[in-house]
Amino acid sequence: MQRVASCLTALLLLTPATFADDPARELARAIDQALTADWARQNVHPAPQADDLAFLRRASLDLVGQIPSLEEVQSFLRDNSANKREKLLDRLLASKQHAVHLASVTRTEWMPQSLGNFRLQLQGTEFEAWLEAQFQKNAHFDEIARAILEAEATVGQRGMIDFGNRRETGDKQALSAFYVVADGKPEEMAAMTSRLFLGIKLECAQCHDHPFAPYTREQFWEFAAFFGEFTPLSPVAPSFVGPLLPQFESNRITIPNTTREVTARYFTGGEPVWKADRSPRRELADWLTVEGKPLFARNLANRLWAHLFGIGLIDPIDEPGEANPPNHPAVLNVLTDAAIRTKYDLRVLLKGIALSRAYQQTSRLTHPSQSDLRQFARMPTKGLTGHQIYDSLLTATGQSANILKETAQNRRFAANEAQGGTRGEFVSRFPQSNRRTESATSILQSLMLMNGKFISSLTTEEKNPLVGRLANSAGTSREAVELLFLSTLSRYPSRTERETFELYLESGGPAEDYSRAVGDLFWVLVNSTEFLLNH
Amino acid sequence: MSHLFPHLSRRHFLRAGAASAAISVSGWLAPLARLTANDAKRKRSCILLWMNGGPSTIDLWDLKPGHENGGKFKEIATKVPGMKIGEHLPEMAKWADRLSLVRTLNSREGDHSRATYVMRTGNSPMGAIHYPSIGGLLSKELGDPKSELPQFVSVAPQRLFNPEAYGAGYLGPTYDPLIVGEVGFNRVEQSKLEDILKVKNLERDPGTSAQVAATRTGLLQQMQSEFAAGTPSSVASSHVSAYERAVRLMNSSAGKAFDLEQEKKELRDQYGRNLFGQGCLLARRLVERGVPFVEVTLDGWDTHTDNFSAVKTHCGNLDRAWSRLMTDLKERGLLDSTLIVWMGEFGRTPRINPQGGRDHFPAAFSAVLAGGGIKGGSITGKTSADGTEIVERPTSIQDFLATTCLALGVDYEKQNLSNVGRPIRIVDKSANPIKQVIA
């Protein structure tokens, strides 16, 4: 233990003075310090660093949702600069693909019911497009939360809430998703707000006092009252059409099955000073980053950590409490502070976490103390989503440029198998999970990858440019095996793998056909555990 | 199958099964039924009919005709004097002597997600522990790990409310269900039901010869072991194990169990040409072949508006399919060794809301046990005249699951190792099973 601690201290002392200037690097250093102290205290031996290609693959999957292309692998290998990993992170975070990936993951996590449900799909996909635009311009998380909460609503014909004329384009329609997915119910909106922006699952307190947290039923409904304007206004004159005036009445709600009406209050205590020109939802949006700041920042910190590691520092993400304390409170505090100081800048925070020692570790087990994933002493292995598998397959064939050319709408609609084509099949068969470090592979998933039409097509020259290239090149079978491994597993083959695979290519396989043998090897590589997981 | 007919090979049985199309039911099935029923070595099976959305049990099993909460439906008499059920289950009324009603289930969970988890695992969702679904627990106790057929099959589930409640939790992925017919919210084409209920991608791609497939799989197995050894993780083990099970299923003839086109057209009509009806037929085929736990989902019970027309429609499909299933199981000598469990995540409010609907109501609702292992014609528990309160014998999900275990001959105090290192019993020791309804 002493040796470990002193090695790490030595590493930290070597860091250059400029480290402190860059907020992401500063964050990484602070995370390292806090985590190292925890490890030393608990006699945990952290795993060594992952090699460059392992890091490249992991960062690509996490930040842009697909494995690196052959060209990216070869170029990263050739790069001799000292800060190549940092440059990689900058490039990935600034890319369009990052915005697309993060938007897809976020929308799926926030609104799973908008995926397959044809009633909610349109708004869900528009919301995803809106999120993409926000991430593309690096909108900070508080701006995103505010935009959602302050979405303008009007009362249309027959008292139905409307989010702008159908003919209008732009944010109004997209943001309505939050409210439509909540079925227009204030209690659902309050529950979503609390879960997604504060990291607290409040809805247990809807019918009775919360079983494990100190929130009463009354407090839940007081929070729901911030969305009081969505309670059907009764009676509404049939001809009434117009914007809802900021109203005092819209900050009240009647607790169901009672006659008790409550006024909006924050469930952590206190209420706004009500003003006629400030709507309750606006007050709520402001509160998030003022009195609500500790919860808002901590939630963001935890979710971003969970995105990269597969488990949050508080796990499950939305049930903090005495029964569920954070695994590394000091690390969480560091990250929460950084969230506040950077004003909720997602790119800086993601970069800081990805530069940390913990994120750079190998996933190989090198000491028994690394078994408990919550120690983050080695990189947890995570399952892949349908999008990631599909995109990685295309990339492995040398067609990654096609991914962004595919219409954005098709991508966002893909969760509905009937409409989404091949991508849709993958997205349905490999649903996004909240517990990626425990995702179980099913028989059906295995069958799809072994026997499915799409995979079978990828063993042919016609549908797989990589197979075509290797089958018709003048290169050796040794080179072909290398390129196969670099394209699919983003690494060189081991000696045994070289021997076995080269021999197989030269024999031509059962069909005694070199091209078919190349296809067979491609099949083997993309069906391997190593290809199908993020490690 | 060998434990069923030790002197008959499986091929013999399957050939005989195919021939049954040409022979009348009474002619051939009766002797087979007697053979099956008398087979002491046969372990019991469980079919869970899962009513997704929270079924309005006050309109099906525990009507309140004297009260305004009673709503539109009438009670009807059943085969059992004193047992009355809702008018839209007339065929099930004829099976009343094989039903055990429990009218006083209750839980604290009125939220779809939490309630689904509680009723399907027996425990509230709580932080670290990943409780297995009942299917996982029971198929582990009743199943044969060497069987080529998965021992836990989930037909047409709608998992959106709580996907974790459909898995094997801490038992590990070996006990996860094989899922067929999961259609999400897509429209179901009635003419394609047999395809929807098949195991997808079970057959090799037509362009791949058996030899090529075997070679590929061999190479794959070599690669898997190296990676899994160096980078151990639960996701990696799950992946390797799933592949092995998939290959086993592919190479066996067990997949034919999912081929509904082997059944007579008239029989398929009798089950009802809808996902639930054909799903029940599939359940019977799987139970026949020794699968110990099959669940079939009927979705659409979340009737916050217009409760009565929706419930009437669902009852139509339910009544037709379930009664046909009972008949089929009986004719094949399987009813005494098969327990059918009917339930949903909660019931619905006695008070009818202004949209003619009923809302979530976990405080008092019904579930039903049917078939083998229970005393048919029995009723447990009593609710108040207005349906809002339990008057006699409140039954928790733990009590109900313990009862289910007893009916299946499973020792519910048996322990499994959980993911937090603590051994956990199938059902709490403190559970109070309804011993009076155990046969």
What Rg of chain A, in angstroms, do the CA atoms define? Answer: 26 Å
Structural class of chain B: alpha/beta
- Summarize the largest interface: chains and residue counts: A-B, 71 and 64 residues
Q: Which percent range fits the helix content of chain B?
A: 25-40%
**Overall form of chain A:** globular
**How many alpha or pi helices of chain A?**
28
Helix/strand order of chain B: HHEEEHEHHEEHHHHHEHEEEEEEEHEE
Side-by-side strand order of the widest sheet of chain A = 2-1-3
- What is the makeup of the main sheet of chain A? 3 strands, antiparallel
Distance between the termini of chain A: 26 Å
Tell me the distance between the termini of chain B. 26 Å
Structural class of chain A comes to: mainly alpha
Task: Please tell me about this protein's structure.
The complex is a heterodimer of chains A (535) and B (439). Chain A is 55% helix and 3% strand. Chain A is mostly helical and 535 residues long. The longest helix of chain A is centred in the N-terminal third of the chain and has 20 residues, at 23-42. The model of chain A is unreliable at 10-19 (pLDDT under 50). Chain B is α/β, with parallel strands linked by helices and 439 residues long. In chain B, the strands form five sheets. An eight-stranded mixed sheet of chain B has the order 6-5-7-1-8-11-4-12, with helices on both faces. A two-stranded antiparallel sheet of chain B has the order 2-3. In chain B, helix 10 (275-288) runs parallel beside helix 11. Chain B is globular.
